[in-house]
Amino acid sequence: LGSFREAAHDEARLDGVLRRLERALARHLRERARAAHPSTGGTADLDHPVAEEFVTVLLLEIGRDGALGVLNCGHPWPYRLTGTAVEPLTRAEPLPPLGPFPLPADLAPHRCEPLRPAESLVLFTDGAEDARDTRGRFFALPDALRTAVRDQPASPQRVLRTVFTALLRHTGGTPTDDVALLVLRNERGPAPRAREPARPATTTHG
Questions:
Q1: Structural domain boundaries of the chain?
Q2: Torsion angle of C-alpha atoms 20, 110, 142, 186, degrees rounded to 10
Q3: How many CB atoms sit inside 10 A of residue 114's CB?
Q4: Got the DSSP string for 148-184?
Q5: Pairing between strand 85-88 and 68-73?
Q6: Could you give the 3-state DSSP secondary structure of residue 39?
């Protein structure tokens, strides 16, 4: 998170932010490998568990007009809430997680349909969909989201309250993994129409 905050402050584009994150992770893994095996001189040992570590990352950019650009390295896609409908933001194939493989040379953000007024995006960590009950069944996050918006478009607070209540019920109150959810709602309405300047009244006499 510290690397992201620094990169987002310095880099004007998503691809620049992601490449900075890749370099920061590579530096972190080299330092861990050096600490674990000083004799390697900082060269990562591919047989060492550090070399197999990875991080999933989703970078999302929302323009003032609702335009969406996304770079996804192995992370779950957000869900879009449109009225009472729940759909994945996109079904495109994400990039591999950061760590095991280098980023491709062409790193253009994936363009999605704009986030329109009153629409929401639900971003979450994989702990939400990987949570299991006592019988080993995964938590159905889309179903919980549909419950939240079943009767009417829901506020972010209601979405979070509904999802966490269902998640805790599913896991018996003890999720085995960290869970984080973020609901982003476009509260920008259509631009108000400019008032026409008042015209002076005129009278005519016949």
A1: 54-185
A2: 90
A3: 14
A4: HTSSSPPPHHHHHHHHHHHHHHHHTT--SS---EEEE
A5: unpaired
A6: helix
Angstrom distance (rounded) from CA 192 to CA 200: 24
Q: Which residue do the tokens 């691809």 mark?
A: 15
What phi, psi does 118 have (nearest 5°)? 75, -5
Rounded CA-CA distance 126/56 in Å is: 9
Cβ atoms within 10 A of the Cβ of 113, count? 14
In tens digits, what is the pLDDT along the chain, a chain of 206 residues? 889 999 999 999 999 999 999 999 999 888 887 887 666 555 545 445 455 688 999 999 999 999 999 999 999 999 999 999 999 999 999 999 998 889 999 999 999 999 999 999 999 999 999 999 999 999 999 999 999 999 887 899 999 999 999 999 999 988 888 899 999 999 986 544 444 444 433 333 43
Its CATH class, for the domain covering 54-185, is alpha beta
The answer to whether residues 29 and 98 touch, using CB atoms and an 8 Å cutoff, is no
Distance (Å, whole) CA 151 – CA 6: 42
Report which residue type is found at 15.
D
